[in-house]
Amino acid sequence: MIMNKLILTCCSVLLMGTLSLTVNAKETNYPLTVQHKYGISVVPNKPKRIVTLDWAGADNVLALGYQPLTSRYWFGDYKDGIWPWARTLLTSAPEVINGEINYEQIAATNPDVIMAVRSGISRQDYQQLSKIAPVIATPVGEGDYTMPWDKRARLLAQVLDENTQAQRLITTIEAQMSAVKKAHPDWAGKTFAMATYWNGSVGVYSGDDMTVNFISKMGLTLSPDVADLTRKGEFYMTLSEEELGVIDADVLFWYVTGDNKKQIESLALRPYMRAFKEGREIMLSPDSLVNGALSYSSLLSLPIAINQIVPLIEQAIDGDVNTVVPLAK
Fold first, then answer.
1. Domains and their CATH numbers in the chain
2. Are 207 and 230 in contact, with CB atoms under 8 Å apart?
3. Mean pLDDT over the full length of the chain
4. Does the structure show a pLDDT above 50 at 25?
5. What is the DSSP secondary structure assignment for residue 99, as one 8-state letter?
6. Does the pLDDT at position 5 exceed 90?
7. What is the pLDDT of residue 9?
8. Which of 94, 130, 244, 325 is 20 to 30 A from 229 in CA distance terms?
9. Do 107 and 98 form a contact (C-beta atoms < 8 A)?
């Protein structure tokens, strides 16, 4: 019950409280020409029916005042693939895309536009989908999974001519992150890394990962060892267990997925890591709100992420080795 009130409060602040901000973004002129990695798409008129193939795209569509025709199921046991922070805005059940993209399923929704940023679509997918409606793929120079959250929101807003609303929401989130940084001057110079265990290997999220960038905006600094490994456009790197020291930092986030918690805890070199010995690890359980909110990195989820992650960081970095950071649920 407390969590439901928290979500409603955050959504109210985000969607209603921002009206006091004075933001006047440039209007979209149609027909709108959008250049992306697969070519050029033309949106002839202001879209009303929006398909999103973005793994978290339904959130931003809802945040800008539209009902998404589709929702891409990613993870979490939530109806329609919609997490709690977005549920109150959903009034029409979307088609849930679970697994491979089904062209016929998408065509049946009769969309005006198909948003395919952060979707991983291939050129063949793009060509097939373009027969249904204009497709907006990842812009040139951006990675499918590294395009920052605010740029994704602005691109959708440009397509929908909801630029002012998007900028209000972005400004509010940026102000919240700045407030966290200002309230925690002791975080300056403290390092962090974000890691997981997947398919038999340790993985670390790069300096181009949108979640890493989000944490950085609140005052922590990505571990230099991880930053040195970052390659443009790649959000994730695989490490051998012998390289575990690369991810040692003042704060170490572990994404827990399925049964990998036992695998993480049994890593031979983990007991020798400073983050482990000093109690500076933060375990993010698979269906926790903070895990989902960070992963989605949407206009609706990020206020939840801020509210949930800050207390965990405070506990991990308090300088007391006896402080136990609870599993984020």
1. 31-161 (3.40.50.1980), 185-316 (3.40.50.1980)
2. yes
3. 91
4. yes
5. S
6. no
7. 44
8. 325
9. no
Residue pair 28/46 in contact (Cβ under 8 Å)? The answer is yes
Tokens 């807003």 belong to residue: 157
Q: 3 vs 18, 152, 189, 286, 289, CA distance in Å?
A: 22, 27, 32, 17, 9
Alpha-carbon separation of residue 38 from 121, 232, 306 (angstroms): 10, 19, 35
Contact 187, 271 (CB under 8 A): no
Q: What is the pLDDT of residue 22?
A: 44
**Tens digits of residue pLDDT in 95-121:** 999 999 999 999 999 999 999 999 999
Whose structure tokens read 């793929």? Answer: 137
Q: Phi/psi class of residue 240: alpha, beta or left (left: φ > 0; alpha: ψ in -120 to 50)?
A: beta
Residue 37: is it exposed, middle or buried by C-beta count within 10 angstroms (0-12/13-18/19+)? middle
DSSP-derived 3-state class of residue 304: helix
* Cβ neighbours of 200 (radius 10 Å): 8
